[in-house]
Every structure is written in structure tokens, then in C-alpha cells.
Specification:
Layout (H helix, E strand, L loop, with lengths): L1 H20 L3 E5 L4 H15 L3 E5 L2 H9 L5 E4 L5 H7 L1 E16 L9 E2 L1 H8 L9 H6 L11 E5 L4 H13 L1 H6 L12 E3 L1 H11 L3 E6 H7 L2 E2 L1 E3 L5 E2 L3 H8 L24 E9 L1 E2 L2 H17 L1 H6 L3 E2 L2 H14 L1 E2 L9
Parallel strand pairs: 1-2, 1-3, 5-10, 6-7, 6-8, 13-15
Antiparallel strand pairs: 3-12, 4-8, 4-9, 4-12, 4-14, 10-11
Amino acid sequence: MTSTLFRAALLSAALIPVLASAQDVTGAGATFPAPIYAKWADAYHKATGARINYQSVGSGAGIKQIKSKTVDFGASDMPLSDEELAKDGLLQFPTVIGGVVPVVNIAGIAPGQIKLTGQVLGDIYLGKVTKWNDPALVALNPGVPLPAADISLVRRADGSGTTFIFTNYLSKVNAEWKSKVGEGTAVNWPAGAGGKGNEGVAAFVQRLPNSIGYVEYAYVKQNKMTYTQLKNKDGQFVSPDDTAFKAAAAGADWNKSFYQVTTEQPGKAAWPITNPTYILMHKVQDKPVNASNALKFFDWAYNQGDKLADDLDYVPLPAGVKDLVRKQWATSLKDGAGKAIAYK
């Protein structure tokens, strides 16, 4: 009898973690917002006990995983078109807005000391400007001690929403880039070595002298990287920060659609490589409890997460946009019986 009770107790104890994990939510995708999702998930767990398990694997992988229903939500910096969403039975909504930033590793060069234009940045990634003391760079940076060294190019190796934002911008400001390479989460890079994720590119640039790469701004801050200035659409050289991202994001028309790309926006203070990042979910939910828990997390983030986003220099969404997202949840997310997914 004692042995039977002991075995039952062991079985009961073994089930506890399984039952606890039933409330867990899984997501995968973009590395661009991974720092803020990690901060939100930690604070949310402390506040509620619920766990958000997010895999920072890149937008391309995130889109694949949500389409194959191996996660509760996917994350992508490249928004899907309304047609593609409809084809796969998905909806998307924004979470925060951030900036993609060129970063360099050049001895003696301080953050913001080097100025770039979109034309020259595109020519660097086309492999046309190959040395730091190229006349095009010297003309933009009089008096800056640019070395007579080869430029080591670093870019993403994986399917990446950060790459989509970066190449979308280059396609707007460099005609040759647009015609030869174009935009996408993965492109046929003319030159450079690949790093996996924003994390991989940041690490690669940090250990490779005379290199240039591109990462989301939170990675710049966390790793104390040397960023460049960029010339924006209004002809102003600007440095990346949340004010510059807010200025760029101001022109998005969220009432029209949640498909918004906000690179190369007008505004004297606007950072030219700014874009929202998005969550993808299935409209009809096979696991309504998981979907409800995911929405509870994002609703909490909308209500409680703005300060954490500010601290990492992401731009929180305006209150009106958050209300539009909640309306979409209420009208578009259903269980198999057609009942709305509750999150409050």
C-alpha cells in the first residue's frame, strides 16, 4: 500500500511541470525585437507566473514556423501583404518600432563620427567602395582619420526581417542596388561574410577590424557598438535614437492597414532605416487556450511594457494603434467553433 502511494506521489510530482507548462506560450522569429520580447517576457513571468518561450531565429524561420503551426505566434520585421495573410489564414499586428543601424569597428573612430549616405552605403555593400579611405568616404568625412584599409563587409546569413528593412532602404536610395540586388529577407549578396541573427552580426563586427555591419539599435546599445550617422530624406545627417525613430514612424497610416514599411520617411529628425516589427497568428485557432494566453501577454505588453521598450530605444505604439490591434483581435481571432478568443 505504502509503495502504491509512493508511486502515486511520484507520478503526481512528475505531472506538476507538465501542468504548469500548459500555460506556456511559444513563439519564434525576428531577432530585431528579441531584446524587448525578452524583457517583456521576464517582467510578465514575474507579474503573472506565465512563461513566454521565444526563439530568436530570424523572421524567415518565424514565418515558416507559424505557417506550419509549430508555434503559437510568429514574429517578422517584414510585414506580409494582405493577400499573403489571407492565403495562409493569418493576421498580423505591430508590437514596437525600431531602427536598423550601420555599425563599424575601426580603431580610433567614435560612435557617430562617420557619416554615410544611402548611396555610399549601398555602394559599400555592392563591393564598389572597398577601402575606408575611398574618395567617396573622405568627401563625407573631412578630417576623420579613415584608414587605408580594406572594408570587411558583414551581413546576415539567415532569412532576416532586419535584412528586409536594410535592403528595402537601400533599394530606395541606391538605384544600382535596386536593379541588381533588390529587397527581401534573403538576397543574393554581392559581397561580405554572414552572421546568424542580429546577435551574430554584432559579434562578427566586434571581433573583425575595419568591418561594417547592420543591426537593430538595441544590439548597438547593449554591446556599446560604434554606429554611423546617416543622411535622411530631408538631407540631414542624423544619429540613431528613439526620437529619430519616432520621427520616422509618425507617417504610418495604421487605419489603412497593418502592412506598413516606414524606411526613408520625410522629416528633419527622421532616422531613415526605421520600421515596425510584427506578430503573426492564425485567425482560426486549433489551440484557443494558447492563443488566449498569447493575447494576454501582448495586451499586458501594450499596457505595461512601454517603459521597458523606451529603455531599449524601441518606440512604443501610439495608444490609438494599440486600440486598432485589440479590435482586430476581437473580430478576427476565433476558435474552431467560431467563438472569439478571450484575453481578459
